[in-house]
Specification:
The complex is a heterodimer. Chain A is an alpha+beta fold. Chain A is about 50% helix and about 15% strand. In chain A, the strands form three sheets. In chain A, strands 13, 14, 15, 16, 17, 18 and 19 form a seven-stranded mixed sheet that branches. In chain A, strands 2-3-8-5-7-6 form a six-stranded mixed beta barrel. In chain A, β17 and β18 form a beta hairpin. Chain A is elongated, with a radius of gyration of 37 Å. In chain A, about 45% of the residues are buried. Chain B is of the alpha+beta class. Chain B contains four helices and three strands. In chain B, α1 (about 10-20) crosses α2 (about 25-35) and α1 (about 10-20) crosses α4. Classes of the chains: A alpha+beta, B alpha+beta. The interface between A and B is medium-sized, with 29 and 24 residues.
């Protein structure tokens, strides 16, 4: 082995020298022989001539000797490549179909793999990302904490080097000119120290900069914000800008490539959380209750501490907190996860979705390989004369196979490179695409070296896979028989490997068509469903009054004026406030409620934990939620009036048994407030479309003011409301300007705002739709290939049949029965598999019922159409077979 | 040539190894030695020798080095490596077994059958 390696190395390193040596040895042999001949009496010239003749073909021996040296790999490869290129160029349509098929399917795989790599696999761009973890509740994946609980946890915990926390908030930033809406992280002072990153410019703030509420008006810009909004002005450090009307000093810029501690939300700037009141509008720094202050808690695990140990520690810390502050805390179980995708909250569905997509993309590639395999097999049998000739002339079978493999891999590599290129272009478009303009979502999906490597592997593997299909055929080739009869033996009666491949491929295609139909139908249903709201024809205006410096009493006052102003717009039928617009966020506040008779208000004594919406009068009308019993709120339900609530049916059922029983009854809220149920509204969907029935409480915004409110405005269908949303938006903006010109706002149709909630099913439908179309294309080429091939091989027979008076139907049956039979088998198989597999889809796509007769019928129709489309041309050809022409040809 | 025996497939390697085992030889010398020890019964085609030699070198059974022949010509000399010596022993034993068996078969008489 070593000797062989050395010989190979020598051959690769100094081929010329080796050649020269071989020449010299052969020459020396001839000389020695000539010497002997000379001794028998011949003269020197004659002796040399005789010696050369005796030796025989100099070159041939050299070639053989060279082959023995084992160095011909590259030379053979070169020959094979040249030959393969020639062969492929000779059949350009075959090559084109093969390369495009591969480019599409490998490209699809690259996109999915790159997405998986960038979103799920790649760590955050911070030092020592491998030990960076966030702390989540097992119950709901939340990582939120109240500020005081966070302080205690930070003080007491032992598992992490240190823990930091942050909150994500929108804010209005003024440097010069109008305020712009930005997203910021309100972070604990140790945020940058825990991450261990160095500023690109200036400095970061630290624990030592925090001296109580609003004591640290410092701001760190993200690199992207500095680049895009401040044009890389190095003089920015030390300058004062205004954030929600408060002066802040820019002290530094984060390094490029750092996009915060969540992959899907990159903030424009960072401010200390101690300034929460100015930034968020409310001060929660002195609260222990709830978890709104801090969105996520994270840190570097100490060396040697496992995630399980850390989770156990936080679970016991939580038990301690529940004991020390029973009114505010319940004991929770914790788990330690990666911060990238907010632990399992986004991470789990995202991983599941991308893995499913990867599986489907893999299936597509498999189908493409099956397709190309049968193409290559058909080609090999069409080339059987050439192959047989080569075998008859003494080529080893291994050599012929090697040549065929070289051809297959060449095709797959070209396809792979094209696919990679196409994927890179597509990914660049996806990376700059911002599906939710109101959120700072920015995920750069770039195919890196690893992705390129995987692509190459995929290409080579698929080349090997479909190149292997004709192997058996070549190995079985009898060169003499083939040369005599023309093609490799007739496979009409038996089930050939090509048939199996075609059935497999059509089955895969049918699975994908089923999946895409299921998801599209699910999406259609989720768009037309009834969710206890009617988003069509409404606009949502989001404002954060805190951004414009509103405080305390002025907030509800301004909100009332906003609603009244909106109602005054001609054509508007209703307007109302809500703190969290249903179906636009999965971040609705939940809080425990207690039965009226409960006296000890500990979290574990609570009767229910419903979602709370703070609304103004007019909200139900604007949202299109039907009031079933009792009354809605009025502007008289203010802070001085008795606390009241409107609840949904589910809440009334769970707490009081039935809606009728609930009306007029009381329940207690967390701080002991006795609240009376004054109205019952219909159930609906609140956070996402796949959720099960949830209990919900609506409370008057006047009784619990919040600075962050959205106004929902419903336009009359006739009066331009739903007809022209843009005109309504302009009118709303004008009205708001009249009230307060400095208040930043964001207006969009409710249906658009629902994009976030519909995003998973939309993405699923889109991805599956694309894959389904690709699968359909593959099925068409597959069936077309087989039908065309069958027809061309039996053209003579069909022509004779036609000439002898067979009618077109018989001929068609003879020509196309087989491909259509295979199509039927494959479709049936795929449909069954697809229906079975679609259960998985149900988790992503709302109402994705795969046992839907419409879907089954749809798949059958699609497959039938594909079959018709694919066999159309071969059928025409079979029918037009002219026996005279065909007989003359041979 | 009636005196020449057909060279059995696979026996060329054995002949070469045996010839070289008797002393360091160049390619032409190997041909001569095989002819000489077989009483000119076995003649190896000149050009066929070299692929075999390269193969044996590659397998590490022979070692090659340049030197000068008895009549002062530069030539490449071959000698056995320890591995080559082992291989020669194996092949010779195998060959002898085969030859004995074939001889026994040929010596069989009808009565013994």
């Amino acid at each position: 082995m070593l000797g062989r390696l050395r010989a190979l190395a020598a051959r690769l390193l100094a081929p010329a020298q080796l050649d020269a040596e071989m020449d010299e040895e052969l020459r020396s042999h001839v000389q020695l022989r000539a010497d002997d001949l000379e001794r028998t009496g011949l003269d020197r010239r004659e002796a040399e001539r005789r010696a050369r003749i005796e030796f025989g073909g100099h070159l041939r021996f050299k070639e053989e000797a060279r082959a023995q040296l084992g160095g011909t790999f590259w030379e053979t490869l070169g020959q094979d490549l040249r030959f393969a290129t020639r062969m492929l160029r000779r059949s350009p349509s075959f090559t084109l179909v093969a390369v495009i098929t591969l480019a599409l399917t490998i490209g699809a795989n690259v996109v999915v793999i790159a997405a998986l790599n960038s979103i799920v696999l790649r760590p955050l761009n911070v030092p020592r990302a491998e030990s960076l973890y966030s702390i989540h509740r097992v119950r709901d994946n939340s990582s939120g904490q109240s500020y005081l609980n966070f302080r205690d946890l930070r003080e007491r915990q032992q598992s992490f080097e240190d823990i930091a926390g942050y909150d994500i908030e929108p804010a209005g930033l003024e440097s010069d000119g109008d305020p712009i809406r930005v997203w910021l992280f309100a972070v604990t002072g140790n945020y940058f120290d825990v991450l261990g990153i160095r500023p690109h410019l200036g400095r970061f703030f630290h624990d030592s900069d925090e001296h109580g509420p609003n004591s640290a008006p410092y701001m760190v810009l993200s690199y992207n914000c500095w680049k895009n909004r401040f044009h890389e002005d190095r003089g920015i450090v030390g300058r004062t800008v205004r954030l929600n009307k408060h002066p802040y000093t820019v002290i530094g810029v984060t390094p490029p490539g750092f996009i915060g501690t969540l992959i899907f939300a990159s903030p424009d700037l960072f401010v200390p959380i101690v300034n929460q009141e100015q930034v968020v509008g409310v001060n929660r720094l002195d609260q222990r209750i709830g978890r709104a202050a801090i969105f996520m808690v994270f840190g570097h695990l100490k060396a040697g501490v496992t995630t399980a140990q850390a989770a156990a520690e936080f679970t016991s810390q939580s038990a301690w907190l529940a004991k020390a502050y029973p009114k505010e805390n319940a004991a929770e179980t914790y788990k330690i996860r990666r911060p990238n995708l907010y632990g399992d909250h986004v991470g789990k569905p995202m991983r599941a979705f991308l893995t499913a997509l990867l599986l489907l993309a893999g299936l597509i590639l498999l189908a493409a390989c099956a397709n190309l395999g049968s193409l290559f097999a058909a080609r090999a049998s069409d080339r059987s004369r050439e192959l047989a000739l080569r075998l008859a002339l003494g080529a080893a079978r291994s050599r012929v196979l090697r040549q065929l493999f070289t051809e297959a891999i060449l095709v797959s590599l070209v396809g792979g490179v094209l696919g990679l290129g196409a994927a890179a272009v597509l990914l660049r478009a996806i990376s700059t695409w911002r599906p939710f303009p109101q959120f700072p979502m920015n995920i750069p999906i770039v195919p890196d070296a690893a992705v390129c490597g995987v692509t190459l592997l995929l290409a080579v593997a698929s080349g090997l896979a479909f190149g292997a299909v004709p192997v058996r055929q070549v190995l079985r080739t009898d060169p003499y028989g083939t040369l005599k009869s023309g093609t490799i033996g007739d496979a009409r009666k038996r089930i050939t490997i090509r048939d199996i491949l075609l059935v497999a491929q059509i089955a895969i295609c049918a699975v994908l068509v089923t999946a895409s139909l299921v998801s599209i139908r699910g999406l259609g249903r989720s768009l037309s469903g009834r969710y206890g709201i009617e988003p069509k024809g409404t606009m949502v205006m989001s404002t954060v009054l805190g951004m414009a410096g509103y405080r305390g009493e002025s907030i509800p006052e301004m909100q009332k004026r906003m609603v009244e102003a909106m109602e005054a717009i001609p054509g508007v039928t209703a307007a109302g406030l809500v703190d969290c617009v249903p179906l636009t966020t999965s971040d609705v506040n939940g809080a425990p409620v207690f039965k009226d008779e409960t006296t000890e208000l500990r979290p574990d004594n609570s009767a229910e934990k419903p979602l709370f919406f703070e609304i103004s009068p007019g909200y139900f009308g604007a949202a299109g939620t039907a009031l079933l019993l009792g009354r809605s709120f009025t502007w008289d339900d203010g802070p001085q009036a008795p606390p009241v609530a409107v609840v949904n049916q589910e809440f009334s059922r769970r707490l009081f048994g039935s809606p009728d029983a609930a009306l007029g009854r009381f329940f207690k809220r967390r701080l002991g407030t006795r609240t009376q149920v004054v109205g019952i509204v219909e159930d609906g969907k609140y956070e996402n479309l796949t959720e099960s029935l949830k209990p919900v409480v609506f409370v008057p915004a006047l009784q619990s003011p919040s600075a962050e409110m959205s106004v929902i405005v419903r336009g009359a269908p006739a009066a331009g409301g739903s007809g022209d949303p843009q005109a309504l938006a302009v009118a709303m903006r004008t009205k708001l300007r009249e009230l307060d010109p400095g208040l930043p706002c964001f207006i969009q149709p409710w249906t658009t705002a629902m994009g976030l909630v519909l995003f998973p099913s939309r993405m699923a439908a889109m991805a599956l739709g694309i894959l389904g179309v690709m699968a359909a294309l593959l099925a068409i080429t597959g069936i077309f290939g087989l039908a065309a091939y069958t027809v061309s091989r039996r053209l003579k027979e069909l022509g004779i049949r036609l000439a002898l008076g067979a009618d077109g139907r018989d001929v068609l049956r003879a020509a196309l029965a087989r491909p259509l039979q295979l199509l039927a088998w494959g479709s049936a198989l795929g449909l069954v598999l697809g229906v079975l597999a679609s259960g998985v889809l149900a988790s992503v796509v709302y109402e994705a019922g795969s046992r839907d007769p419409l879907v089954v019928a749809g798949v059958a129709v699609v497959m039938l159409l594909l079959g018709l489309l694919a066999t159309w041309v071969p059928a025409q050809r079979a029918l037009s077979a002219d026996p005279l022409v065909l007989l003359r040809e041979e | 040539m009636p005196g020449e025996a057909q060279l059995l497939q696979g026996t060329l390697d054995l002949l070469i190894l045996k010839a070289v085992s008797l002393g360091r030889l160049h390619g032409y010398g190997i041909l001569l030695r095989i002819g000489q020890i077989s009483g000119q019964a076995l003649l190896v085609e000149q050009g066929a020798l070299y692929p075999a030699l390269f193969r044996l070198v590659r397998q590490g059974l022979l070692k090659a080095s340049w030197g000068t022949s008895e009549n002062n010509r530069r030539a490449k000399f071959y000698e056995l490596t320890p591995a080559g010596r082992g291989r020669l022993r194996e092949e010779a034993a195998g060959w002898n077994r085969l030859a004995t068996a074939i001889a026994a078969v040929l010596a069989a008489r009808p009565s013994e059958a």
